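Bug #77: duplicate submission created two jobs. Keeping one. Sequence:
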Amino acid sequence: MAYRVAVVGATGVVGREMLNILSERQFPVSDMVALASRRSAGREASFGDRTLKIQALDGFDFAGIDIALFSAGGTVAKEFAPRAAAAGAIVIDNSSAWRMDPDVPLIVPECNAEALAGYAKKRIIANPNCSTAQMVVALKPLHDAARIKRVVVATYQSTSGAGNDAMDELFNQTKAIYVNDPIEPVKFTKQIAFNVIPHIDVFMDDGSTKEEWKMVVETKKILDPSIKVVATCVRVPVFVGHSEAVHIEFEKPISADEARAILREAPGVMVVDKREPGGYVTPVECVGEYATFVSRIREDATVENGLAMWIVSDNLRKGAALNAVQIAESLAARFLKKAA
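Kept job's structure:
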């Protein structure tokens, strides 16, 4: 069976990546529609060897669309996802708008594909935060083996996570430094070139940022509400690819060798862990890849049953577009064929 698919936010970095991955993975599409704001109407987007004309979202009728992939921000998702669902589409939304709605499943297919059954309540499925998605892919098989009690994570998040303008700001600031031009932060609160900024999204009352809060609550919803999580989320001068230093405390003993063996068999995970110079993965090497890479697996002697590891993934792929397409694939395999 082939499906009529719409991509909302098709001019953004994630929307373009959704179109690329749908084509790369040969998702069965009978008709593809690229949607964006009215000011982008008439522009072009690539879908495999086809060129699509962007249509305006605010005038689009979703009747007849089977699956709508949204990557246009929370405000747009709040308004248009229910409209698309009411017209008969199943919405897979990449924003934070629906993630914590109890009637909307929050899905990473390698971790909790069975929760997709909840899509019928609102016909909306949420895609998690980019940093959460790559972390839980690595945590899930370890949680199944030894039950995780606590996670301490520091992220090193690329500028592409903040969109096209953020990537441009890194490029322009880097160029300006070399020619001694003044630096004027616009997208970020401080200079991002040759710097790191421990601030992603807005600050909350307890001193954490909303990005850090997302990692806490989303990990609990996807994996297990009993897991304790504390996160520090940092923007770094990298164009694509998020990295994470993750420290995990387990209920049961688990050695680094056992964890390495478990992760080598885990879906969506690639272990690259040689204890030698260069025997690990960095953001540059993960760009364009589907896998979540795990390196530097070692025992943490400061806590009982502790491990530490380094996790790297292409945030535009597993952190956003790829996960959304994987959700569509799981949805089609588990439910839509049965309904057809």
